[in-house]
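All the exercises in this workshop are built on plain-text protein records. There is nothing in a record beyond a sequence line and a structure line. A learned vocabulary of local backbone shapes supplies the integers on the structure line. The question running through the whole workshop is how a given chain folds. Here is such a record, shown just as it appears in the course material:

***
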Amino acid sequence: MSEPTGAGARTRRLGLYGEATVVGRCRAFVRGVLADWAWPAPEHSGGLTREERGAAVEDVLLLVSEAVTNAVRHGGGPTELVLRLRPRAPDAARPRAGDLRIEVSDASRALPRLRTPTVRGLPGGYGLRMMTLLARRWGVVPSGAGKTVWFEVVAPCQAQGLASSAGCIPGPEPLGK
């Protein structure tokens, strides 16, 4: 994807080099960037409640954790995390900072695949299912000797009372689109 353009478009990057605490570092970076960008909506905009803003941020952090963990477990470790903000025109029913695209690059060309969840209650096999439920859409782009897994998150809309980053659009696109 090309760099976002237009008024308010923003991009932030974090280079990653196999640190043991990479997931926590990525979560802290994303949390800080989202706060800097007042995402999903400015605190006193009159649109979203504190709980709705918090839920949207937590959805993004969960997706980042999943993507980075998958890069560690299946991709030889993440090499870069990129956040892109696409601004949206303010709307009284939907005050928001814009929609996000987050990219996690790694050094493996192996594509993500839907896995069968492990024993109920234990981790494993849920990442792509969560990605499909919480992201507007997601995909993979081969790059050099590796790949970039990306996902897009729509800022929630107060008008529909959504407390999830699933946003004010139809559900996620099916796998492979």
About this structure: The first helix runs from residue 22 to 36. The first strand starts at residue 10 and ends at 15. Residues 5 and 86 are 8 Å apart (CA to CA).
